[in-house]
């Protein structure tokens, strides 16, 4: 059986492996998969941005006035930050 057949994540070690060599291979495979998942920052950032965009769309659909206010607030905060950085660099 494979992990997909058992509905286990790639980072899990299947239970019931009695052969020590097969168990070690399964543990190594799970450890390498966990390292890949944790270490792949571009993929994690992409997934987080997709989740954030989906949440923003749902929020905008449910509360359009709040969404406009949030956009205006974010734009004002970004402008203030750019102005403060520019002013600090000009001194």
What does this structure look like?
The protein has 91 residues and is mostly helical. The protein has two domains: 3-39, no CATH class; 42-90. 80% of the residues lie in helices and 0% in strands. The protein has helices at 3-6, 20-39, 41-62, 64-90. Helix 3 (41-62) packs across helix 4 (64-90). The longest helix has 27 residues, at 64-90. The protein is elongated, with a radius of gyration of 23 Å. The N and C termini lie far apart (66 Å). The mean pLDDT is 88. This is DUF3618 domain-containing protein. It comes from Microbacterium murale. Keywords: Membrane, Transmembrane, Transmembrane helix. The chain crosses the membrane at residues 65-86.
* Radius of gyration (Å): 23 Å
Task: Report the structural category.
Answer: mainly alpha
Order of helices and strands: HHHH
Relative strand content: under 5%
Total number of helices: 4
Mean of residue pLDDT values: 88
Question: How is the main sheet built?
Answer: none
- Morphology: elongated
Number of strands: 0
Low-confidence stretches: none
Please report the distance between the alpha carbons of the first and last residues.
66 Å
Helix content: over 70%
Keywords: Membrane, Transmembrane, Transmembrane helix
Protein name: DUF3618 domain-containing protein
């Amino acid at each position: 059986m494979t992990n997909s057949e058992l509905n286990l994540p790639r980072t899990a070690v299947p239970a019931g492996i009695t052969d020590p060599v097969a168990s070690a291979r399964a543990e190594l495979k799970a450890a390498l998969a966990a390292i890949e998942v944790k270490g792949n920052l571009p993929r994690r950032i992409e997934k987080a941005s997709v989740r954030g965009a989906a949440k923003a769309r749902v929020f905008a659909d449910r509360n359009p006035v709040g969404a406009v206010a949030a956009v205006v607030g974010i734009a004002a905060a970004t402008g203030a930050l750019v102005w403060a950085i520019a002013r600090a660099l000009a001194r």
